[in-house]
Amino acid sequence: MITHQDDINLTDSHYFAIHDIHDLFRRMRATDPVHWTQGQLKRGFWSIFKHEDACTIYRGASEYFGNGNGIGLPSSPEVEAALTPESMGAHRSLIASDGELHRDFRKAFNGMFLPRAIKRYEHIGRKLVLEILEEVLPRGHCEFATEVAARLPMAIICEMMAIPRTDWQLIFDYVSQAMGPEDPEYHGQSTAVETRNKAWREIVSYCIKLALERRGSSGADLLSIIANSRVLGGRLLTDEELGYNGLMFLVGGLDTTRNATAGGLLELIRNPDQMRRLHEDRRLLPTAVEETLRWTSAITHSMRTALKDIEIRGKSIRKGDWVVVWNASANRDNEVFANPDKFNVARDPNDHLAFAYGEHFCLGAHLARLEIRLIFEEIVEHIPDVELDGEVEWLASNLLHGVKRMPIKFTPLRRS
After folding, report:
1. In which domain, by residue range, is 299 found?
2. pLDDT tens digit sequence for 172-185
């Protein structure tokens, strides 16, 4: 039986930090997979828990379900009251647009994220991983989430956008505050609304400034490409489009990958047999990456707005309703995945929805896969005896399933 408290838990960021949300997802899939959810928000929404229905929503992009009014649930009643579609970048970025504008954004930015373009980051990425690990290997311990998992994706996305190295920590801090405003560590003495708004405003302003400085240049970095792209018949992007697309790439390039990497290593520690399999057969690394993406589901949900009336599993969804696809639930659906609650580095096939599906499939999927693989390759090679060295702390967020702290220990090693 699904209770009102279950609905509240789905809209409670702190619940995600201290409970195993998959217990609730299992019950939802079994008893009410298309569920009207009131939660603690003023506005109710449809929750989608099964893989098949999630794909239906994703395939219906632009015709039945739109991204333009925001793609993430408000994290609290206070945030809900303060948010407007405009403040979430509605119709101003690739991820929060539909139709022709979305297609033009994707066409303009896609080149930097194709497999052949991403391949050139393999060498620099491996070099960065080795530099990061060389700082911690001799110690025999580290705080993995911030000292390792966060540093590679931050370095690569900032390199791609040609953001000065002196600003990397500033960007990291603002992204953390933007995506985890309910977490006490990030909002401090401010409210969640104040924290989120300030962080989003600072990142957007920062990206606008750098992009405008590069407008008219022949630069090959991502911000230069954004600055000089043309959409909707040939116009340049507005200032807000520059800023919100920059924000999107920074958040997507940093937060999701670091959370998947840390969560994946946590499961390898919890399942030493799986670590041994990787150590004995490195050919399993690609499937291990896919299993990490499925298991962690770093973006727990993706919200859409119904553009037309539609019926799913006998439930009448009306035009204007919010529809929330719980990727983290769909990725444990036992109708699609055998033994879904078992972490299996050899799982194949693995039709997970960690990068969504269809028209809004994540542009950075190839980059994320590369970064996770590079880190796992070096961990398996140099610290296969890794263990936890304290409690794991999770981010208070119902959008990002994130490991905030994960102390680990291992046999100290000096590289020659």
Report:
1. 4-409
2. 999 989 888 888 88
